[in-house]
Amino acid sequence: MTGQSISRALLRHHGDVDAEPGLVDYAVNVRLTRPPGWLRERLAAALDRLGSYPSAADHASATQAVADRHGVSHDRVLLLNGSAEGFALLPRLRPRLAAVVHPSFTEPEVALTDAGVPVHRVQLSPEDGYQLRSELVPENADLVVIGNPTNPTSVLHPAAELLALARPGRTVVVDEAFIDAVPGERESLAGSEADGLLVFRSLTKMWALPGLRAGYVLGAPDLLARLAAHRPQWPVGTLTLEAFRACSEPFAVAEAERAAVEFETQRAELIRALAELPGVHVNEPASAPFLLLAVKDGSRVRLALRERGIAVRRGDTFPGLDADHIRVAVRSPEQSEPLLTALREVLG
User: Fold this and answer.
1) Are residues 68 and 213 in the same domain?
2) Residues 108/131, Cβ–Cβ less than 8 Å
3) Using 50, 70 and 90 to split pLDDT, how confident is the model at 12?
4) Residue 111 domain-assigned (yes or no)
5) What spatial distance separates the first Cα and last Cα of the chain, rounded to whole Å?
6) To pair with 75 at 20 to 30 A between CA atoms, which of 125, 127, 160, 291?
7) Do you find a cis peptide bond into 91, omega within 30 degrees of 0?
């Protein structure tokens, strides 16, 4: 594996570890503190069905709902026990060399490395805002993994540039866990039927469902069949199937779009406020519900924020970043004020 050396334990460090109970949480990028009322009602109504195994009909109806939401055929959808399950299945594609574009979500690299797959880290540069440079991807890589928008840089890569990564015999994995927080889901490849493309999606962030584990992957039927080979029976539970149906309905998609527009406004306001603080650099352009900050003496700043009851995501567990990087969630101006107040105190 090429690139900066980070232990497996640090690669598996995620924002929920930083957000200890009692702290005001800017480390985790979940929009709400709990699912919206209409979704809780749908899940509660499904509780009586927990006495039976999920049926093939239940699974088929949830799969069709997701397919209809993206305008694809049902055989191009694979429902997952969270997107993390899908990343754990990637070694079943038997890649000879995987290229993982960094800085980015680290679970795909962990899964591939644990399975003995050689991994090449494609390290993007802060000088150009961590924009994709396709020439850095080795030509012989038969699996490429990239986030869009990317966690933690908040960069939204053009769909055309992602499609340009395709090669005969290569699978391109695009993690769109945060694309529903982008107005119009611009640059999404969810409806594409390009050869060798796998698009991972999640219900976690928009609908506050990290405890339910609900994700899915869109792609060619043959690729999905290879991923799904030898999965256990009933890999997705009744409540998760209900969540897929509920969150794929037009009113839910419309609510997500309204939330995405709100995120855009809130992010712009937070960037303006952060720009007034000494020694803080925000990576821009930013398109996700979080921002990557470079702050001098970042470890001290992060610990000082913690002493003031504020949790932010450490950045040095992402390949290509160091202790002077932190990630902060985008919140409303009122919700962001405790973070900004604490930063003003810490930075003087």
Assistant:
1) yes
2) no
3) confident
4) yes
5) 41
6) 160
7) no
CB 51 within 8 Å of CB 67: no
| CB within 8 Å of 320: residues ≥ 6 apart | 3, 4, 102, 103, 121, 123, 124
Residues 6+ apart with CB under 8 A from 106: 11, 12, 317, 318, 319
The mean of the pLDDT values for the chain is 95
Please spell the DSSP secondary structure of 229-275, one letter per residue. Answer: TTPPSS-S-HHHHHHHHHHTSHHHHHHHHHHHHHHHHHHHHHHHHHH
The CATH number of the domain holding residue 68 is: 3.40.640.10
Question: Quick one: DSSP state of residue 187?
Answer: T
Residue 215 and residue 129 share a domain: yes
Element (H, E) at 92: none
The count of domains in the chain is 2
Long-range CB contacts (within 8 A, 24+) of 187-190 = 187/148, 187/156, 187/157, 187/158, 187/159, 187/162, 188/148, 188/159, 189/148, 189/159, 189/162, 189/163, 190/70, 190/72, 190/218
pLDDT tens-digit series, residues 257-300:
999 999 999 999 999 999 999 999 999 999 999 999 999 999 99
Instruction: Please name the residues in contact with 95: beta carbons below 8 A apart, sequence gap of 6 or more.
Output: 112, 117, 141, 142, 143, 171
Question: Which among 165, 158, 157 has a CA at the least distance from the CA of 138?
Answer: 165
DSSP 117-144: --EEEEE--GGGTT---GGGS-TT-SEE
131 is in which domain, residue-wise?
Answer: 37-249
Residue 55, in any domain of the structure: yes
Q: Are 202 and 325 found together in one domain? A: no
CB-count exposure of residue 340 (10 Å: 0-12, 13-18, 19+)? middle
DSSP state, residue 294: E
Tokens 């390949």 belong to which residue? 319
**Which CATH number goes with the domain that contains 266?**
3.90.1150.10
Q: Are residues 53 and 110 in the same domain?
A: yes
The structure tokens 């012989």 sit at 140
